[in-house]
């Protein structure tokens, strides 16, 4: 991949996609192709094929996905599995059909089993049951990984899959579909404005997550586009985890909130831990 390569970033307005755009521009890549959801719905096979036929991208970064919180996954399971399967089926298949030189697919740590030894190694995928609260989303992500591997095996396509840790950063969502970190920031901010006596947190606060700044993920993705060609999925993270209660206390301190923290244990915790083993990418020479 060189500075004149045509690179299509699918999902460029999202958290991960926008970070990849920033990194590409910073590194001097000039031929970046993007489309908003309004101008190109990747679920529409006909329109997506027309786009590939016209633009002929050389490299594709598939960051487009329907993502969300535990609550969103629990409320809209059909949308999560259908939309993600449809987007990735179209983009991966058309990338092969229009001879894309290389595709990078972004998976999710949700794809690992609920009861998985920590830190999670790539070979642990499909060795146990998934966390029920986001199972449809996780199955879609697993399907994307397997699709990349199948196209690699049958057609020799250079399609690689990356599983990142829990990302946060610029262009994160703060609506009902937000992940835990922006959700907590919003709750404490609103509690300060309203001078609320308490902030309610879902679950026990015991689950641990590996929080990963999105610009570091973007750096890792571009590194892997140049250095990695294997069909086996590869983890990318920082190797440190923080419990939800620790995170809440940090945000509480920064925000200046002085009220009570209430844990609603009637709400689900999600996966107890989700720490990635990133030794594979480290061995290639990348570290956050």
UniProtKB/TrEMBL annotation:
Example GO molecular function term? GDP-L-fucose synthase activity
Isomerase found in the keyword field: yes
* InterPro entries recorded: Epimerase_deHydtase (IPR001509), GDP_fucose/colitose_synth (IPR028614), NAD(P)-bd_dom_sf (IPR036291)
Asked if the keyword Isomerase belongs to this entry, the reply reads yes
Q: Which Pfam families match?
A: Epimerase
Q: Which residues form the NAD-dependent epimerase/dehydratase domain?
A: 7-237
State the UniProt keywords alphabetically.
Isomerase, NADP, Oxidoreductase
Q: Which family does it belong to?
A: Belongs to the NAD(P)-dependent epimerase/dehydratase family. Fucose synthase subfamily.
- Matching PANTHER family: GDP-L-FUCOSE SYNTHASE
Supply the name of the protein: NAD-dependent epimerase/dehydratase domain-containing protein
Which species does the entry assign this protein to?
A: marine metagenome
């Amino acid at each position: 991949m060189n500075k004149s390569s045509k690179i299509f970033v699918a999902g460029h307005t999202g958290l991960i996609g926008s970070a990849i755009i920033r990194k590409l521009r910073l590194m001097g890549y000039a031929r970046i192709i993007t489309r908003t959801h309004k101008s190109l719905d990747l679920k529409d096979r006909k329109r997506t094929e027309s786009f590939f036929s016209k633009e002929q991208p050389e490299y594709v970064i598939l960051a487009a996905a329907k993502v969300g919180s535990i609550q969103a996954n629990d409320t809209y399971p059909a949308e999560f599995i259908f939309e993600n399967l449809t987007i990735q089926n179209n983009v991966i298949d058309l990338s092969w059909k229009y001879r894309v030189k290389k595709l990078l697919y972004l998976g999710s740590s949700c794809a690992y089993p609920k009861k998985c030894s920590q830190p999670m190694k790539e070979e642990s995928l499909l060795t146990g049951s998934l966390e029920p609260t986001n199972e449809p989303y996780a199955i879609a992500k697993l399907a994307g990984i397997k699709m990349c591997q199948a196209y690699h095996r049958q057609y020799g396509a250079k399609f690689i899959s990356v599983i990142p840790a829990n990302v946060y950063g610029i262009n994160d969502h703060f609506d009902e579909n937000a992940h835990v970190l922006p959700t907590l920031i919003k709750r404490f901010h609103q509690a300060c404005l309203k001078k609320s006596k308490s902030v309610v947190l879902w679950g026990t606060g015991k689950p641990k997550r590996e929080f990963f700044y999105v610009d570091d993920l973007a750096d890792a993705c571009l590194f892997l586009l140049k250095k990695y060609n294997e069909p086996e999925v590869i983890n990318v993270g920082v190797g440190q985890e923080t419990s939800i209660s620790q995170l809440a206390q940090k945000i509480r301190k920064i925000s200046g909130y002085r009220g009570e923290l209430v844990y609603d244990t009637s709400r689900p915790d999600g996966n107890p831990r989700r720490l990635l083993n990133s030794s594979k990418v480290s061995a290639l020479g990348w570290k956050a």
